[in-house]
Design goal:
By secondary structure, this protein is mainly alpha-helical. The protein folds into three domains: about 70 residues; about 110 residues; about 80 residues, no CATH class. The chain contains 13 helices and no strands. Helix 11 packs antiparallel against helix 12. The protein is globular, with a radius of gyration of 20 Å. About 45% of the residues are buried.
Length: about 270
């Protein structure tokens, strides 16, 4: 589901928890845990707002999450809040994305859960890649790869349940696509996407758009067009601005090749 479908739900949950914390009576330890929950819920609300294109609301929720995570003294949640802010900076064209992502990884250091370190390292890799820093992106990706294969000493935080080897492969492929290195990008994306079910429509549509872009860079124009058509299939009806934005980007790239029958068909579909 897209952020347009879930945002109000997350905002309602966040508001109710915030009310309970403001009005309730509890021990200091319970209060600290409650503020950790506020941080998690604010991150969810921020992500849904971001996915729906509500960037001002997203920033407000992420700042709430950052403040709550600091009050909760949860360095992992603090690092994740900073990583979310970094991602938002990239979306709005801000100049602080790398600094936020660096601070996020630094917040967890080397002694925290390796899954969280992997997540924050791959977020840093993204900031480097989208800023054109190939060497730094490659190093951050290597940190993420090393961390995801490390053994955790304790339970993984619930909010990081989705971070696995496939997530690192996806980010690897996206980074190398942004850096126009298709021979590195395509194998990573195809490996991970081969295990993505179509029910994960939003994510699969998004990641296929980077695969389409990588094939375009490799000179496989018609194959890029076919994947773009698949992105359209998966993203139809999704309340998310991101797959639509990625589709528009690919349509612009394909436009000079409209004489190719498959490309022309995709462009006509997009226009319709």
């Amino acid at each position: 589901m897209g952020g347009g479908d879930t945002y109000r739900l997350y905002v309602g949950e966040l508001a109710e928890t915030t009310r309970l914390v403001a009005e309730g009576v509890y021990t200091e330890g319970v209060g600290q845990q409650l503020r950790g929950i506020i941080a998690e819920q604010a991150q969810l609300a921020g992500w849904a707002a971001y996915d729906a294109g509500l960037y001002g609301e997203a920033r407000r929720h992420y700042m709430t999450a950052l403040a709550a995570s600091k009050t909760a003294e949860d360095r992992s949640l603090e690092g994740n809040s900073l990583a979310f802010l970094a991602y938002l900076e990239w979306a709005v064209g801000g100049g602080s994305g790398i600094a936020y992502a660096q601070a996020g990884l630094a917040a967890v250091g080397t002694g925290r859960d390796p899954v969280v370190r992997a997540l924050l390292a791959d977020r840093l890799a993204w900031q480097y890649a989208t800023s054109g820093h190939a060497r730094e992106a490659g190093y951050a990706l290597s940190l993420a790869e090393e961390a995801i294969h490390s053994r955790a000493d304790g339970p993984v935080p619930d909010w990081a349940y989705w971070v696995d080897r496939d997530e690192i492969l996806i980010m690897t492929g996206r980074c190398w696509t942004e850096l126009h290195r298709p021979l590195r990008a395509i194998p990573a994306l195809e490996d991970a996407l081969g295990r993505y079910d179509d029910t994960r429509a939003r994510d699969k549509a998004l990641y296929l758009s980077w695969l389409a872009s990588a094939y375009f860079d490799a000179g496989e124009i018609e194959h890029a067009a076919a994947i773009t058509s698949r992105v359209m299939d998966l993203s139809a009806g999704l309340a998310s601005t991101r797959p639509a934005g990625r589709t528009r980007m690919m349509v612009r790239r394909l436009e000079p090749h409209r004489a190719l029958p498959l490309v022309g068909s995709v462009l006509e579909r997009a226009r319709a």
